């Protein structure tokens, strides 16, 4: 029976002129003979040896094509591996000049692979390829998270947000699109891991074809790298001697450690509440008898007021709304808050504002939601002087956070009687949500005033199609919005175009502000106090790569005493905060608000 053996007389090169590989020829012996008496087949089984022999025969018949395939595959393998080693993790840096680098990791990997026997070498090369594939996936996630959330991907906390991303795509562009995109991404990731591992194995095989030459080349590359590093030689503003993969891995490892350490530290911070032991009668005494409404406008950020494309329309709306409210007897003051989130994860902005804690990741959010921390709604509830209610048109499933916030009742997307169309992600226009709030709660005769938390969603990306204002008496069950939704732009057309996204975003803010201020003109009373703010800036494609995290915040009331209490804040008169108006971190708002309206601190132990 023939056996596969390594020949001592292997040719120095293949038929097409490319170097012959010991690994390729090792398996090219004769296939094992069939057992005696076995029936012969017209198509013998294609063993590994026969496949290699067939490939070598084809290579001999078509040397030019074989040479082209060999060089193309080698070049692609080299580009794939080296590209992964120097790939940036920011979308705006994804340029050709960023890839003109000499990665130190490639030199170290070559030296390691040259020192290993065949089997360990192949395993190490495949592992290297898989590691580079994983790094590439994380780099892409960093790009997407920076684009949509203004930060990198957290390896500990952010996997759950991928499910939210799929839900967002399903709500915005349909379930079939979301399913197809998810399946496509999974296949792409599997293909990436396979291709990267095969590319690394191929390059390792090329290294050992001529160990002596490869060793010399590795030593020369190492010398060049050290020289470039010592002399700080740069190209396109970055050092030519690069170690991006190692640096990125170290940064992610440090972030993991910090995330794990942060949990215990934040739990301690969460327990230290300046008003944790304040008696009910000493909480917000200066707002007793007032209907207090906290309203978050989705993605209402500083860019809406200051960006040259979006600001003209938004500022006209703010000026017109200020004038209309003034005629109705209302006055407003406005400032800036720096949000704990950017581009998305609105619940982090909501919880930061209401809890007085900096909640910038999902771990902190879970810690607070599972604690007895006094949020603003819970503080009003604790007094016993207010009913508390939430209007949450973006909530479409169970919402256990209701208990933490101390809301007596919450109206979700299915509990406000809406019979109209969805506007992409937003389940209903803001005008309808506000009219439903009036019908279901605010407009009813009550034994005590109402403290409300309202989340307005019409300005949520992708900002298409957009609702339009209708007569308040025409709102009805929402069916009036059918024709408006059908005539609107498609989400897929807007979300992929930065210019159209910016224009549509500005229009969405104009709509939301108009709906809210018109509601106040129409239904507000002498005892209505409205606090409204943005939860975060829009995504970087709209707000810009260097945009701040600031959002506008306004307090509106008829009773002059309400605004007198915050006179020391030096906020701007009207709904449009001045460029130089005070900027606070969002987590400072709760305690300053409580103090301004007469609350006495009694810290929890």
Report what the structure shows.
- The chain is of the alpha/beta class and 605 residues long.
- The termini are far apart.
- The longest helix has 35 residues.
- α4 runs antiparallel to α5.
- It is elongated and about 90 Å long.
- It has two domains: 195 residues, no CATH class; 311 residues, 3-Layer(aba) Sandwich (Alkaline Phosphatase, subunit A), CATH 3.40.720.10.
- It contains 22 helices and 13 strands.
- The N terminus is likely disordered.
- The strands form three sheets. Strands 5, 6, 7, 8, 9, 10, 11, 12 and 13 form a nine-stranded mixed sheet that branches.
- Keywords: Membrane, Transmembrane, Transmembrane helix.
- It comes from Streptomyces phaeoluteigriseus.
- This is CDP-alcohol phosphatidyltransferase.
Query: Structural class given helices, strands, pairing?
Result: alpha/beta
For the secondary structure, the number of strands is: 13
Q: What's the helix count? A: 22
Number of domains: 2
Q: Mind telling me the CATH superfamily name of the largest domain? A: Alkaline Phosphatase, subunit A
Strand coverage percent: 5-15%
CATH topology of the largest domain: Alkaline Phosphatase, subunit A
Helix content: 40-55%
| Nearest-integer average pLDDT | 85
**Rg value:** 32 Å
Known CATH architecture of the largest domain: 3-Layer(aba) Sandwich
Key phrases:
605 residues; alpha/beta; nine-stranded mixed sheet; two-stranded parallel sheet; 50% helix; 10% strand
Annotate the secondary structure layout.
Layout lengths: L21 H5 L21 H14 L1 H24 L15 E2 H12 L2 H32 L9 H15 L1 H35 L1 H20 L3 E2 L2 E2 L1 E2 L1 H28 L19 E7 L4 H5 L4 H17 L3 E8 L7 H10 L6 H8 L6 H8 L3 E5 L9 H5 L3 E3 L18 H13 L7 E7 L25 H6 L3 H5 L2 H26 L4 E7 L5 H4 L6 E8 L2 H5 L7 E2 L9 E3 L3 H8 L9
Parallel strand pairs: 1-4, 5-9, 5-10, 6-13, 7-8, 7-9
Antiparallel strand pairs: 2-3, 6-11, 6-12, 10-11
């Amino acid at each position: 029976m023939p056996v596969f053996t390594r020949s001592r007389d292997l040719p120095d090169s293949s038929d097409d002129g490319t170097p012959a590989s010991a690994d390729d020829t090792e398996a090219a012996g004769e296939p094992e003979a069939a057992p005696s008496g076995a029936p012969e087949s017209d198509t013998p089984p294609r063993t590994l040896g026969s496949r290699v022999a067939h490939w070598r025969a084809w290579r001999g018949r078509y040397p030019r094509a074989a040479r082209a395939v060999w060089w193309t595959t080698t070049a692609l393998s080299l580009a794939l591996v080296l590209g992964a080693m120097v790939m940036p993790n920011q979308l705006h840096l994804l340029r050709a000049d960023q890839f003109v680098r000499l990665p130190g990791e490639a030199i170290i990997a070559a030296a390691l692979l040259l020192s290993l026997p065949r089997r360990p070498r192949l395993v190490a090369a495949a592992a290297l390829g898989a590691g580079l594939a994983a790094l590439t996936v994380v780099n892409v996630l960093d790009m997407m998270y920076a684009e949509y959330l203004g930060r990198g991907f957290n390896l500990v906390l952010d996997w759950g947000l991928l499910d939210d991303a799929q839900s967002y795509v399903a709500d915005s562009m349909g379930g079939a699109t979301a399913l197809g995109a998810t399946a496509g991404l999974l296949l792409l990731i599997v293909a990436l891991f396979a291709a990267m591992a095969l590319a690394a194995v191929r390059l390792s095989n090329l290294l050992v074809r001529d160990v002596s030459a490869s060793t010399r080349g590795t030593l020369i590359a190492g010398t060049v790298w050290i020289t470039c590093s010592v002399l700080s030689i740069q190209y396109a503003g970055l050092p030519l001697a690069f170690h991006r993969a190692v640096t990125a891995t170290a940064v992610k490892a440090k972030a993991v450690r910090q995330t794990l350490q942060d949990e215990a530290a934040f739990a301690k911070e969460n327990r230290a509440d300046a008003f944790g032991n304040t008696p009910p009668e000493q909480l917000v005494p200066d707002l007793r008898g007032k209907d207090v409404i906290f309203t978050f406008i989705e993605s209402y950020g500083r860019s809406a007021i200051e960006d040259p494309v979006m600001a003209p329309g938004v500022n006209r709306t703010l000026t017109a709304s200020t004038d209309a409210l003034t005629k109705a007897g209302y006055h407003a003051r406005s400032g800036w808050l720096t949000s704990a989130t950017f581009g998305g994860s609105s619940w982090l902005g909501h919880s930061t504002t209401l809890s007085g804690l900096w909640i910038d990741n999902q771990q902190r959010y879970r810690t607070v939601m599972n604690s007895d921390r006094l949020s603003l709604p819970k503080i009003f509830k604790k007094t016993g002087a207010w009913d508390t209610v939430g209007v949450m048109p973006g909530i479409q499933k169970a919402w256990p956070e209701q208990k933490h916030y101390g809301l007596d009742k919450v109206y979700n997307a299915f509990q406000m009687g809406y019979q109209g169309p969805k506007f992409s992600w937003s389940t209903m226009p803001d005008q309808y949500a506000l009219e439903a709030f009036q019908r279901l709660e605010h407009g009813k005769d009550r034994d005590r005033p109402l403290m409300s938390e309202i989340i307005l969603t019409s300005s949520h990306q992708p900002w298409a199609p957009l609702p339009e204002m209708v007569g308040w008496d025409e709102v009805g069950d929402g069916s009036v919005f059918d024709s408006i939704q059908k005539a609107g732009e498609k989400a897929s057309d807007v979300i992929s175009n930065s210019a159209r996204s910016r224009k549509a975003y500005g229009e969405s803010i104009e709509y939301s502000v108009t709906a809210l201020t018109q509601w106040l003109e129409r239904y507000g009373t002498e005892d209505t106090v409205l606090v409204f703010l943005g939860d975060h800036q829009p995504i970087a494609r709209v707000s810009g790569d260097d945009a701040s995290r600031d959002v506008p915040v306004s307090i509106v009331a008829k009773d002059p005493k309400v605004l007198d209490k915050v006179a020391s804040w030096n906020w701007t008169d009207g709904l449009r905060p001045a460029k130089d108006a005070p900027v606070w971190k969002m987590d400072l708002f709760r305690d300053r608000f409580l103090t301004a309206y007469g609350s006495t601190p009694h810290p929890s132990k």
